[in-house]
Amino acid sequence: MNANGKTVLVLGATGGVGGEAARALLRHGWTVRALTRTLRENDGSGIDWRQGDAMNADDVLRAAEGVAVIVHAVNPPGYRGWNRLVLPMLDHTIAAARAVGARIVLPGTVYNYGDDAFPVLTEASPQHARTHKGQIRVAMEQRLADAARDGTPVLILRCGDFFGPRAANNWFTQGLVKPGQPLRTVTYPGPRQLAHSWAYLPDVGETMARLLDRERDLATFDAFHFEGHYITGDELVDAIRRAANAPDLRVRAFPWPLIVLASPFVETLRELRPMRYLWKTPLRLDGHKLHAFLDDVPHTGIDEALRATLASMDVGIVQERA
């Protein structure tokens, strides 16, 4: 870590991953700075909010002055605008990190991988993305690897599909359970007998903070896979039923045929449609490297994690009878 001490800039702190990273780093004694397009007054969070836009290189550089780490957790909402926005935002982060001597932290995804890498993904698995969004993700990591070779340290923490409180832009809240609506059904996007990797966001944020506590032990370019919860669709649905106290909760298949029909007219659906391949096979992140590096990898039980997630979504959870 550089001489600037424990100050971190979080890009995307109003989102799920960035928000949990910011809260975890505060708990670990970091001074947390965050960039936001809408200026925020002191909100009691302990975060030093700075007004600016990740699409503006000067804004990012000013916000990064004096930091030791930049967490790059900013993404276009709803899969929209990836072609125009994602790589320029990362370039601004790389330029700022290079200028101030900071490490870049990227929350990684499984979109980088194609069928040749499944069902178990290690840090060395080939990244032959099948989708355009996945190819952008591969390009992001290639740029970060180039930056690391030039002396800018990088950490990637790759996770499965996110869920958790305060998170909106993910498969759980956009596909399985609808926020703000009575919980009557769960919509599952693939065969329910297949297992899939899920990442509980508070665990992800805490893991990121624990890795940065040992920043001096990290390689200049280092990547870890966060295993999270590797469970079948049936197991996940049963856990949702327990968490919601709704044993008769129905399950229906995700309406992929309707997505196909509507995708020419809706950008979000057009980007979502190619991701179907991720639900046609078991998908597991191998967490052995992370477990070997950290003495204790955070892991909240699935029932507790789902109770917190559903409670934050205002879905009308059935209360326990006395």
Polypeptide structure, described:
- By secondary structure, the protein is α/β, with parallel strands linked by helices.
- The protein has a domain at 7-165 and 198-231 and 282-300: NAD(P)-binding Rossmann-like Domain (Rossmann fold).
- 37% of the residues lie in helices and 19% in strands.
- It has 11 helices and 14 strands.
- It has helices at 16-27, 57-64, 82-100, 132-149, 171-176, 201-213, 233-244, 256-262, 267-272, 288-293, 302-313; strands spanning 7-11, 31-36, 48-51, 69-72, 103-108, 120-121, 154-158, 161-163, 185-188, 195-200, 221-225, 229-232, 250-253, 284-285.
- Helix 1 (16-27) links the parallel strand 1 and strand 2 (31-36).
- Helix 1 (16-27) packs across helix 6 (201-213), helix 2 (57-64) runs parallel beside helix 3 (82-100) and helix 7 packs across helix 11.
- The termini are far apart.
- The model has no long low-confidence stretch (mean pLDDT 90).
- It comes from Luteibacter rhizovicinus.
Q: How would you write the strand order of the largest sheet?
A: 3-2-1-4-5-7-11
Q: What is the mean pLDDT? A: 90
Question: What is the share of helical residues?
Answer: 25-40%
Number of helices: 11
Give the oligomeric state of the chains in this entry, treating copies of one chain as homo and distinct chains as hetero: single chain
The CATH architecture term of the domain at 7-165 and 198-231 and 282-300 is 3-Layer(aba) Sandwich
Number of strands: 14
Topology-level CATH name of the domain at 7-165 and 198-231 and 282-300: Rossmann fold
Could you give the order of the helices and strands?
EHEEHEHEEHEEHEEHEEHEHHEHH
Tell me, what is the CATH class of the domain at 7-165 and 198-231 and 282-300? Alpha Beta
Distance between the termini: 53 Å
Strand content: 15-25%
The CATH superfamily of the domain at 7-165 and 198-231 and 282-300 appears as: NAD(P)-binding Rossmann-like Domain
Radius of gyration: 19 Å
User: What is the makeup of the main sheet?
Assistant: 7 strands, parallel
The shape is globular
Global structural class: alpha/beta
* Unreliably modeled segments: none
Pfam family, one: Epimerase
Organism: Luteibacter rhizovicinus
GO molecular function, one term: aldehyde dehydrogenase (NAD+) activity
Protein name: Nucleoside-diphosphate-sugar epimerase
